[in-house]
Amino acid sequence: MFGDIARFLLNTIFTLFGAALLLRAWLQFIRMQPYNPVSSAVMQATNWLVLPLRKIIPGTRGIDWASLVAALLTSVVYVVLMVAIVGVDPLGLMPSLLIVALLTVVKWALNLLIWLTILMALLSWLNPRSPAMPILHQLTAPFLDPLRKIMPRLGGIDLSPILLFVIVQVLLMVVTRAAVSLTLFGI
Hints:
Elements: H1 2-29, H2 37-54, H3 65-86, H4 94-126, H5 133-150, H6 160-183
Helix pairs in contact: 1-2, 1-3, 1-4, 2-3, 3-4, 4-5, 4-6, 5-6
Pfam families: CCB3_YggT
Keywords: Membrane, Transmembrane, Transmembrane helix
Protein name: YggT family protein
């Protein structure tokens, strides 16, 4: 029971922090204003790790490499802790663990995309004039706009978020299966 609780807590904490690091990189890539509440919160939560890394890993062409490397380092720590909780020696699985850490970052990114899409869809129904809508639209537009071109609107209802949700869920299944096959247990 202690192992299950520890895995749950580690998964929750590391997934939220990893998603914040990826969101930070994403916000910078789409050139989101740093003074909106979302950007400010993400920056405050991640500055302690990203700012020291930024001194040695500069950003190029709009890509915040320090945030991406921080997400990968966070993922490595997460995977090593998860393996240690199960009782397996992390050093014996090191090459596989690095691949699993990379897959974990992909999983965090996919989960972040799902949650942002769900939040945008809910707000578009409940409060389309919410101050968060422009931010959510700007974050999800690169993924939803291509789908809107191939998905017809049915009676004015945009089904592209549902299609994106299905595509991302399938990708999550593939990533999770790959990670499980490399470690012989789930992360």
